[in-house]
TrEMBL record:
GO molecular function: oxidoreductase activity
Ketoreductase domain mapped to chain residues: 4-185
SUPFAM superfamilies in the record: NAD(P)-binding Rossmann-fold domains
Protein name: SDR family oxidoreductase
Pfam families cross-referenced by the UniProt entry: adh_short_C2
């Protein structure tokens, strides 16, 4: 990654900070952007203020940037909120952050990426490929994001590669909000085939791979970083194909 510049949106904490660190360790010059600076600052990583939902701010940011090789659209997320518990405008804000903002930012970065034959990585979620009660607008936006990446990959080939990381549950600073305390995290970890949540560094390593020349022939693809995904719930409920102790044969 020496000589390459990477921008990671929402790279100030959580998954994005893991991605920023991994790209910096691989030799890239990394700029993270978010509305507020990282606390504490991330060593060796530049910060620039940006609200990814604002097209003018995004355009100004990339116009001022001397070079761009790798864009990681990571800023995103949603609170747990059932559909009927909020009006449509609040759900639309979730779609704005998780689908429209990556489109806004990527379009603002397009001229740079065409010049450098760069690449884009969308940070998707398993919520985009299974029902997501409590985060329905988020899941729909992430499904759309993956589709957007596939179309961009075709429109912009052969100059720019565009891929999605479909991320499962990650152990970030915010894990207690989603899963509860250590007991909640341990219980949720037991539902993952690999037996643990991902770390931000796991997502960072996959990002470095997709951004690197090792992935030169990979575009329009989705790479699942989910530890094996979700075991089908019906297998536990079914009474067929079990041992007398109730375990699967
Ligand atoms: N955590 C998980 O288990 C998990 C699982 C699957 C996928 N993901 C995906 O991974 C990505 C990061 O998630 P996370 O859990 O690390 O989230 P997080 O800890 O809440 O961090 C979100 C980052 O995005 C920034 N951000 C939020 N709104 C922004 C805006 N309007 N403009 C610019 N920056 C903004 C935040 O900084 P400011 O608030 O200062 O702006 C922060 O840096 C998201 O796309 C999420 O969907 C996460």
């Amino acid at each position: 990654m020496d000589g390459r510049t990477a921008v990671v949106t929402g790279g100030t904490r959580g998954v994005g900070a893991g991605i920023a660190r991994a790209l910096a360790e691989a030799g890239a010059h990394v700029v993270v952007c978010a509305r507020r600076p990282p606390q504490p600052p991330l060593e060796g990583i530049e910060f620039a203020p940006l609200d990814v939902r604002d097209p003018d701010q995004a355009q100004d940011f990339f116009t001022a940037l001397p070079r761009l090789d790798i864009l990681v659209n990571n800023a995103g997320g949603a609170p747990y909120r059932r559909l009927a518990d909020a009006d449509a405008r609040r759900h639309a804000r979730v779609v704005e952050l998780n689908l429209l903002a990556p489109l806004t930012v990527t379009l603002a970065a397009h001229a740079h990426l065409r010049r450098t034959h760069g690449n884009v990585i969308m940070i998707g979620s398993v919520s985009g490929s299974r029902p997501s009660p409590g985060t329905a607008a988020y899941g729909a936006a992430k499904a759309g994001l993956e589709h957007l990446a596939r179309s961009m990959a075709v429109e912009w080939a052969p100059d720019i590669r565009v891929n999605t990381l479909v991320v499962g549950m990650v152990h970030t600073e915010s894990a207690p909000l989603h899963y509860g305390g250590p007991d909640g995290v341990a219980a949720v970890s037991r539902t993952v085939p690999l037996g643990r949540l991902a770390t931000p560094a796991d997502v960072g390593a996959a990002t470095v791979f997709l951004a690197s020349d090792a992935a030169a022939y990979i575009t329009g693809a989705a790479l699942h970083v989910h530890g094996g995904g979700e075991r089908p719930a019906f297998l536990d409920a079914a009474t067929a194909n079990k041992t007398p102790q109730g375990e699967l044969r």
